[in-house]
Amino acid sequence: MDSSKLANFKYKSFNHIETGIMNNNLKALFEPTSVALIGASSKEFSIGNVIIKNLLHYQFKGPIYPINQKEDEIRGLKAYKTIFDVPGPIDLVHIVIPPPFVPQEVENCGIKGVKAIIINTAGFKEMGAEGQALEDDFLARAKKYNIRIFGPNCQGIINSDPAFQAYCNFTFTYFKPGAISIVAQSGGVGAVITQALHDMHIGIRLYASNGNASDISITEIIKYYGEDEQTKVIVLYLESLSNTKEFMEVATKVTAKKPILAISAGRTEKGAAASKSHTGGLAGGITMELIFQKVGILSFSNLEEICHAAMAFSSQPIPKGKNVGMITNTGGPAIIATDELVSCGMTIPPLSDQAKADLKLTMLDAASINNPLDVVATAGATHFKSAIEVMMNEPQIDSIYLTFVTPPFVDCVSVAKEIAAISKLQRKPIVCNYITDKENWKETSKILNEGGIPCFDYPETAAKALSALVNYHDIQSIEQGSIKVFVDIDFENAKTVFDKAKAQNKEVLTAADVYQILEAYRIPIAKWSIANTIEEAVLEAEKIGFPLVIKADSEKIIHKSDVGGVAINIKNVDEVRSVVTNMQQKLQQPDLKFFIQEFLTESRELIIGVKEEEGLGHLIMFGMGGVMVEVYKDVVFKIAPLTDIDAQAMLDNIKSAALLGDFRGKKGIDKGKVIEILQRISALVHDFPQIKELDLNPIFANEKRVCAVDARIIM
Ligand code: ADP
Ligand code: MG
């Protein structure tokens, strides 16, 4: 396999999914026409009772069959001794009995012809080997009968569609139908999200929390939501991924159709400390973020923001750009909103002359005809109507931000009706910072809510929700770029080095090995040579020429300058002798060699690195380098392989991006050369996936030359 194969890799065109289960749809789970519950109970405060209660309360459209060996009736429903006593067919079964009895019940369900089972019971693989054996047992039986398993150790699903009203879950939020579908790896987080949306009077369509995910995965649920016409936006809470590649394939396809908003947790910097490279140490905890970025998922860092954004996505169209038209009937909150919008990257463009002229005719005299447009507090329905319509007709305006305080001297119900009527046309998205006493302005609030206007108490919150809509548009319009194929790479030469290192069981490659690999991949490095003794060092130094640098090379020394293993600006043979003698005495390593290198000046120090990520491939890092890299932490990561656009974005996205350009009389660096090194490194790790970590730190870069002076590869 050589890097020319990279040409065949095309982002956003994954064409096959290998697991067979993906072809099996989840209809019986999410759209059950009958539900049975094995372990139904007449005992209040038991799961076997609560699920029956929920199905009844939510008015499930099909028959409900409680299964209980002793009772004849549960919550007024006829109970059956076994699943075989149930007269009709059953789509979906809940199992809530203790683990040892679960496999046999799954078998019985198979014989009965059940299509899907939610195993709410806990105590399987999370409890160790015995639980794992039970889980394997019921999975094998389910497979035999082609039954899909949801859980175990899970809440269940909810489908609010009036045709089903399936509350197959033991939670408590009886939400109304809506366009948001939720999948949560943690039921508790799922409850936070559903309850928050419900409290804001926002409907939800589908809900799922699948616990151990022994069979039906989060990925499959996302795929199902993606295909569900009524789902406008997906909210995802994720802690870990079992099949990263499959998740990325599915999510990429789904985000092209509808937004996925996600939040991940449990990604603290574990493993970072054990790392042998700068890159490994700096990569801790960011992988999920990068995965979201790569597949076009909008990432959120807190639950409140994700709920607010979901609210906006569920009723509003996606804007075509960053330009916001602002309308307000009170000054201050709109000023705060402007700051927030601008800091989120939005722009507030001026109105056209025509729009201004039109508004002059319709607005009150005191109105300030600009963007933001202050209609003033006494403005009524006709003023708001005209203001919103003019903004809707302005081609340079992509979305509308409304500040609406409810003055007691204005007919606010009529204002709300106008806003709702215009919003229904779905021309451009509207968000609203709605300032009122919800107890006393019930009617106004109801009209706005039913009209689908996302209303927020705070200007910052409203502004953030709007910028989430814009972000989705931006992500969808980003060009992916192409992966460069290098024909000048000497793959065989590099392979020889890797094979030899492997045969010798080496984990950290020697400097000579690393430099040979870099040369094979045409990655520019400073002129160098290796010496074993003082005399060799003198000889090699004279070949390279003064001034030069001498570095200690030993498998045991990771950061050379930390132990006095780097001597720079060495001007003559005497200095070579004394530096080498000194290092020999101080470092005492049996494999100690001396790395002689030309001395470079007048450059910015950069870092390029790689870290392998299980199940994903490699992460590539770029940033400001040198010995201070861990102090500044000014680095960015992307998932390999890198396209030209990825590489360019990495240079643009570090905090000190300005330092790469012309700066204080110094010319900017040759960015094209840096981008090429990033692309060549991407090719290298594609060809040699055994690379665990790689650091080029520093890379010296100025306007003429870009080259690495220190490199490390860990296998
Ligand atoms: P380590 O990272 O193992 O401590 P480096 O080879 O990166 O060792 O050297 C440490 C620092 O020494 C670099 O960040 C750079 O500032 C300086 N340095 C190293 N090599 C050169 C060189 N060839 N020319 C000029 N400065 C160098
Ligand atoms: Mg270094």
Structure described in brief:
With 715 residues, this protein is an alpha/beta fold. It is 37% helix and 19% strand. A hairpin with a 6-residue loop joins strand 8 (156-159) and strand 9 (166-168).
List its traits.
29 strands; Rossmann fold; 7-stranded mixed sheet; Dna Ligase, domain 1; alpha/beta; 23 helices; 6-stranded antiparallel sheet; binds magnesium ion; 19% strand; binds adenosine-5'-diphosphate; 37% helix; 715 residues; disordered N terminus; flat
Largest sheet: 7 strands, mixed
Termini separation: 18 Å
Number of strands: 29
Number of domains: 4
Ligands bound, unique: adenosine-5'-diphosphate, magnesium ion
Radius of gyration: 32 Å
Total DSSP helices: 23
Helix content: 25-40%
Question: What do we call the CATH homologous superfamily of the largest domain?
Answer: NAD(P)-binding Rossmann-like Domain
Overall mean confidence score, pLDDT: 93
Biggest sheet: strands side by side, in what order? 9-8-11-10-12-13-14
Give the CATH class of the largest domain.
Alpha Beta
Judging by the overall fold, what is the CATH architecture of the largest domain? Answer: 3-Layer(aba) Sandwich
- CATH fold-level label of the largest domain: Rossmann fold
**Morphology:** flat
**What share of residues are in beta strands?**
15-25%
Structural class: alpha/beta
